[in-house]
Amino acid sequence: MIETIKKHIAEVQAFSSTKKEEIENFRIKYLGKKGLLNDFFAEFKNVANDQKKEFGQVINSLKKSAEDKVNELKESLESKEETKGIYGDLSRPGEIIPLGSRHPISIVKNKIIDIFLRIGFNVSEGPEIEDDWHNFTALNLPEYHPARDMQDTFFIQTNPDVLLRTHTSSVQVRYMENNKPPIRTISPGRVYRNEAISARSHCFFHQVEGLYVDKGVSFADLKQTLQYFTTEMFGKSKIRLRPSYFPFTEPSAEVDVYWGLETEADYRITKGTGWLEIGGCGMVDPNVLKNCGIDPEEYSGFAFGVGVDRIAMLLHQIPDIRMFSENDVRFLEQFKSVL
Ligand code: DAH
């Protein structure tokens, strides 16, 4: 009897199959309810006392060999099946893909775009390397105009007509030159100024320009649009337009949003006034419309420009504008967004 069992052990160890059915038959043959192992265990009581110990050991070893074999074959079968289908096991729990980080400037820029897309604006872009006409002259800033001092920039030494744009207002000009009213467009982008770098100003930063040109566009439309924007962007609907001057708009205004004075940070951010400046705006100067081939007798329009970096600093409590361009991963990793 013991010899027979030992033969079975050798047989079990030699067994191999890649077929589910064969493995199952093998399992039933040895480990099933009516399987060989149960028969051998039933035999146990008939075995002579002096052989009981050895008999016990061999049937246990047969049992273990059979179990190990079945497990081993099943496992290799499963892992083969997994790689077989394109998707493997569809019921397997998914692997969590962590959300990557996005630059805070992009997050804010995308949010602004999203807000204006909802009211029928489209997105337009222009080159960062501009010519004098699009950045200055067409915008009512002729050569030697003192207002050019407000926006000193970087010129190509050999050709003063080529410069890095100082504002996204240059895209307004390009858009009006190439499109007929009605025009509703926003132009996000990077701009450059010849300025000393500090915690609050940099030689490059980001703006979003807005332009709306159609028949009968009024200052009230401008105010309403800006109010819609501040409500969606900051959850603050109280704004004020302070008279100001820009060569390309008449009248012109600075846009302030009422931030409130609830926390200590509010006092700091608004210098104790509760008001916060977010950009400039105005009615497009008739001269600018004319320069771009649009009849100011027939059409009117409004424009505005907001600073993206300032808004990002405000919303994310970033104390220094230089952090945006330092590429410090510890800083960048903190910003995640689906937008
Ligand atoms: N271009 C101005 C700047 O960079 C911002 C600006 C003010 C844009 C008034 C406009 C506007 O479109 O109407 O400071």
TrEMBL record:
GO molecular function: ATP binding; magnesium ion binding; phenylalanine-tRNA ligase activity; tRNA binding
Organismal lineage: Bacteria, Pseudomonadati, Bacteroidota, Flavobacteriia, Flavobacteriales
EC assignment: 6.1.1.20
CDD domains with a match to the protein in the record: PheRS_alpha_core
Cofactor stoichiometry and binding remark: Binds 2 magnesium ions per tetramer.
Subunit structure: Tetramer of two alpha and two beta subunits.
Recorded family membership: Belongs to the class-II aminoacyl-tRNA synthetase family. Phe-tRNA synthetase alpha subunit type 1 subfamily.
Superkingdom of origin organism: Bacteria
Positions of the Aminoacyl-transfer RNA synthetases class-II family profile domain: 108-334
Protein name (record): Phenylalanine--tRNA ligase alpha subunit
Record GO biological process: phenylalanyl-tRNA aminoacylation
Keyword Cytoplasm found: yes
Native species: Aequorivita soesokkakensis
List of residues binding Mg(2+): 250
Pfam families linked to this entry: Phe_tRNA-synt_N (PF02912), tRNA-synt_2d (PF01409)
Keyword annotations: Aminoacyl-tRNA synthetase, ATP-binding, Cytoplasm, Ligase, Magnesium, Metal-binding, Nucleotide-binding, Protein biosynthesis
Gene3D superfamilies noted in UniProt: Bira Bifunctional Protein, Domain 2
InterPro entries, per database record: aa-tRNA-synth_II (IPR006195), aa-tRNA-synth_II/BPL/LPL (IPR045864), Phe-tRNA-synth_IIc_asu (IPR004529), Phe-tRNA_ligase_II_N (IPR004188), Phe_tRNA_ligase_alpha1_bac (IPR022911), Phenylalanyl-tRNA_Synthase (IPR002319), tRNA-bd_arm (IPR010978)
Essential cofactor(s): Mg(2+)
Catalytic activity entry: tRNA(Phe) + L-phenylalanine + ATP = L-phenylalanyl-tRNA(Phe) + AMP + diphosphate + H(+)
Cell location: Cytoplasm
A GO CC term assigned to this protein in UniProt: cytoplasm
